[in-house]
Records
---
Amino acid sequence: MMKVRETYDLTGIVQGVGFRPALYRAAVKAGLTGWVQNRSGTVRLCIEGEDKSLDAFINDLPAFIPPGADINNITKVYSEDEDCFTEFSIIESFDDEDRDVVIPADLSMCADCEQEILDASDRRSGYAFTTCTNCGPRYTVVNAVPYDRERTTMSVFPMCDDCRKEYENPNDRRFHAETIACPVCGPKLTLETLDGNPVDGNPLELAKLEISNGKAVAVRGIGGFLLAVDAFNKDALLELRKRKNRPDKPFAVMVDSIKTAKKYCDVSPEAEELLLSPEAPIVILDVLDSDLPLDLITPDAKTLGVMLPNSPLHRLLFSQQFEVLVMTSGNRGGEPICITTEEAHNRLGGIADLILTHDREINLRNDDSLFAIQLNQPQAWRRARGYAPNPVRLDKPLSRNVLAMGAELKNTIALGFDDEVILSPHIGDLEAPEAVDSLEQVAECLPAFMDKEPSVIAVDLHPDMQSSKLGARIAAAKNIPVVEVQHHHAHAAACLAENGRESGLAVVFDGTGLGADGSIWGAELLDVTPGEFNRLATFGGAPLPGGDAAVMEPARQVVGRFAACGIELSDVVRERIKITEEQAEMWKQQCEKGVNAPVSHAAGRVFDSVSVLLGISAERTTYEGQTAIRLESAARRFGRKSLTKLPLDAYEEKNIFRISWKKAFEFLAEACLESGKDEELAMALHEAMVEAIMLMVKYGAERSESRTAVLSGGVFMNSILNEIAVPELEKEGFEVLLHRRTPPNDGCIALGQAVIAGA
Ligand SMILES: [Zn+2]
Ligand SMILES: [Zn+2]
Ligand SMILES: [Zn+2]
């Protein structure tokens, strides 16, 4: 049989993930000769063998690539009747001037490494920093590019002879594993008190003992510190809530195995796949009845954020001791999670009892990613560890390099060039100065790492956002232009971009965002075409007495909403929302005179008012999104179609179609007083929201070519809304695009900004 030679270029996530060694082993096994080589952002594969076996090899490629890799494209570049190689080899990288740099994402511990650390006879038995080419930290340890050991925080650990042998052996799983380490040469664990004194003894065993005694131990994971507390210890949980000043916001948990996840939660096949993936995010699951103290872990909803151990350290922390640990951010409320041991000492005083840390430094912060399952498919809510900085690929290349600064809440930034947008990990809310520092660091690192100089900076229209201010400073320093992008336009562009599209009728429902007309938008129907948008529909506005204060104190919004709708606030309703006569009068005056009472159109604010009116939310919220979570949870408890319909009206004003909630609130002002109706009315509100969406989209369809509905904004994290709205839209003949790989919340804004400003 004649032998042939074929040469392929492979693109996607193919570098820094053990791709070449995997190809090497597969090729040798298949009896093929040739070579594999890293080139600028691609891998070139040259194979010789019989025609048929070459085809089979290429067809089977997806099956034997490493778990962190992802082939985007396979292109055949040559096919020759040649046969000269006697073996298969990994040849030196081909470096050209204009190389595309790849920083791999952090990957969860692989099954092989897990086996080694649990095997008493293995030289890495019980070793918390075991990694290989298939797993371990990447992004978080990188100091500079290209990605190799000298430019990571592992550079201070010279390899021992055994590790060196593995590192240099193409047949070894650790061939060119840049974070390779062992107990002889690698990082070491320490347990410290908050005042910085090391605790004598085995750090891991002592930490486990302290956790089982009800203590909170700050554990330094891949991307930062998490606080570990025994999930069954009520006193410890109460104490943690008190110390973190976090009365209600749900805690995430880490469980020892998928079996335990299934014991406490309803785990769908999609959720299971996600939990077990190399990215190993937190997945929001419905909880089952159990002896877990859910009222302390997740007081507001019957859902729980669950993850599996993602590093050897976490795995060893569980070994034969715990089933479920609460693992919550190692931070003070509102600040980013601590990454250095020094930060932990400075910022976790009064929160953690002990610090379990090590000398493998984290250069860049990376939170745990968070996903929900929406309509049987994963949807990102927070994109960080495991996913960032993998690119979002665009259908159409950008015309210029752009650095997009994102929003104020759930900030991420993005670097766009060619047909890629690199979305940074979740940076968080920019209120805390530490968060702004973090933003600045990432804004500096991303372009440097990717070797792409931005020629334009994209910012939100709102000039007071920290991200907008920093963007302006960077632009001034580099002497490049700033492009302001309207918030909801960015939402729409992000959802379109991740779906490979440019145009659509975008329904963007969220909590806030400065509109092009100076008012607060947030229930928008935008007709989006490349680079442009036309605002077709929105909700009638209502004032927020006290501005931002009304968001944390939604009872104020009821006063504002009633004032806007001309509804008298009766004493019974006033008492129900627990405000005094004086407060009611003051806030009403504020609305009427327009003193610090900005008008908001946002859908999120309708949820707020209804939630507090129905007595489902307290008059004050303790975290962002609480009212919506409680309202969704109440509707979920009702669990069927509501018999009550909230009346809606619509009108046109200044060429914009507007949904009026006046009649709905008139109805609710009476109905909320009936006892036992709150859950049904919560469901009725969800149904009314969908009715509003349908009215808006149908109105838009008469004025646009598009039959594609795009759903973006934090409100679309609400699964009931998606479950009702998506089939309804499809029934009317619309194609529906949802966020999947990027969050519907403001975590997607930077992507949208990059696409718009870089076009
Ligand atoms: Zn591994
Ligand atoms: Zn070693
Ligand atoms: Zn938003």
---
Amino acid sequence: MKSKAAVLHEMGLPRPYSQSKPLKIEQVVLEPPGENEVLVKIKAAGLCHSDLSVIDGNRPRPLPMVLGHEAAGEVVLLGKGVDRLRLGDHVVFAFLPSCGYCSYCKKGKAALCENGAKSNSEGDLMGGYKRIKKDGQFYNHHLGVSGFSEYAVASIHSLVKIDKNIPFSVAALFGCAVMTGVGAIVNTAEVKLGDSVLVVGLGGVGLAAIIGAKSAGAKKIIGADINPAKRAMALKMGADEVIDSSLPDALVNLKSKTGGGVDIAMEFAGVIPALEFAFQAIKRGGTTVTAALPHPDARLNISPVDLVGNEKSLKGSYLGSCVPDRDIPNYLALYLAGRLPVEQLISDTITLDDINLGFENLASGKAIRQIVVF
Ligand SMILES: [Zn+2]
Ligand SMILES: [Zn+2]
């Protein structure tokens, strides 16, 4: 069947993206879903910084590729052998499929699924297939999702069934921003009641982490960003105070205000000074978690003596260390109960045709989460 989709053919085109138009809106052809695959009518898809990292070349992926890795929709066709989803089910995509049987999946570490990582890096669906074509050429899938498209063929291992009462535009957020931000807080950092939490980098994921820290019972939440508009958003979403971590006295001030540092520092900015600041901002015995993805060549400068002598921890978090099937329904239940008000992350809804302008607004820091609605 035919589907209108946003396709990336070349990385690293110059900004503004509203002029260079890195994403081409094209009619692609989707092959029917194969075994353990379904066809999803996409209802909503979010614009995330990780899409931007593919567009600007910081996170190289095989091209051409239909981008978009944060989406929600409705199941409209079942492939062979699909028993856990039915026609009409509402689903959220997880941007890393988990096979359920590799050594990591068996240990409850779905974020490290070997088979999921392999298919994502090759631009395949789990199982090794590509289902998007144009003029006889296969296009690549983005992280098993490719949500910037009217329809998507997906592996059932990429999908989580959700409650039909949840608006699709909000549901989409749970596939990346919420899973990554809230998951990093509760699964990776294991924030406890009464902890002080610093969040550096206040984009969609960082703001989701602030909402998650509040929900997890953090005593003091400090947001840090160089952009004053984002700091203002953090205050609205539950931060107790905000700082500009690029100022020369920011670290000294933070340490004096927090009795030597915070218990937990989260870094989502994707630049090395932000991660170094987050590491220096924790107190003795504290934990720094990073979920950002700077360029693969970036290197960190930290003091091993500080790490050892002060028993500090530095942890990476992918997919919020989540098991999507377990965690997305839990986070959605909290949202429905009003305890995870992540709908505030949506700054705009846009059409697929406006997607290049949307990415320009994301790159310039004007937007938090823009959702393409279909
Ligand atoms: Zn994302
Ligand atoms: Zn696995």
